[in-house]
Amino acid sequence: MADRLAQVSGHVTNTYGRGLLAGEVAIITGAGQGIGRSTALLFAKEGASVVISDIDAKRLETVEGEIKAIGGKVLSVAGDVGADDFPKKIVDATVQKFGKINHIVNNAGFTFDKMLHTTPDETFDIILKIHVRAPFRLIRQAAPYFRLKPEQRENRSVINVSSTSGLHGNVGQANYAAAKAAVIGLTKTIAKEWGPFGVRANTVAFGLIHTRLTASKEAGVTIEIDGKKVALGVPGAARPATTAQAEEAYPLIPLRRGGSPEDAAGSVLFLASPLASYVSGHTLEVTGGAGI
Length: 292
Description:
Blueprint: E1 4-7, E2 12-15, E3 25-28, H1 34-45, E4 49-52, H2 57-69, E5 73-76, H3 86-98, E6 103-106, H4 121-141, E7 156-163, H5 164-168, H6 174-194, E8 199-206, E9 222-225, E10 228-231, H7 243-249, H8 261-272, E11 283-286
Parallel strand pairs: 3-4, 3-6, 4-5, 6-7, 7-8, 8-11
Antiparallel strand pairs: 1-2, 9-10
């Protein structure tokens, strides 16, 4: 691979002899575990300074230690992405520490599943708040560091995490499906408005990725939202123990397996990297071939 990739038309030059994201700065929300953690570790390995956030400060501290252990540069900003003061808090901390922002990965989120006819307003509203309003407010807060003059431009992108639920809907997920569909429209709008500034905006729509959100609900994993415990997971879901069991369990996935957080992180890295320098406004489906 060449040491440098120049986007002549966009006046952007990236040095990645030391990694695809060498010298760049990325904010990653929901980085305390799962996809966010794997993305933060991968970005750090590829040379980025990473600013990680999560509502669970203890988990965030663990991930910070993992990144430092591999020689990565990291800043932790614990907090609720839905809080009114969160965008300013994390943007100011990032710029104070690293001087700029190259990428925002809006990954934080959770599910609060109920059948449509039993879904109360607050259950619908909280999912839209975290999955749509929170990313919008963070991106808006960071606007001065993205809408730059040509001579100030580097590789910059916004990556919003969606889901196949947002593409196709899903039983028991009217709130989540609506939010994840909205994220796609938000992303395309950013691509059109900020494209003239050399900023790319893309969405990743994940299928089955093995995280706490897709694990068995019977495992009892919960998250506390506004003082209330919300059960996570899928009723009756069980991760196959062997390849043969997986092939039988996932007949609708051509690759015959669910994805790992590392699989998911690789797709996010691609969209952030110079390898996707002419990819913007796109929704990348990461599903193992499901839904084709």
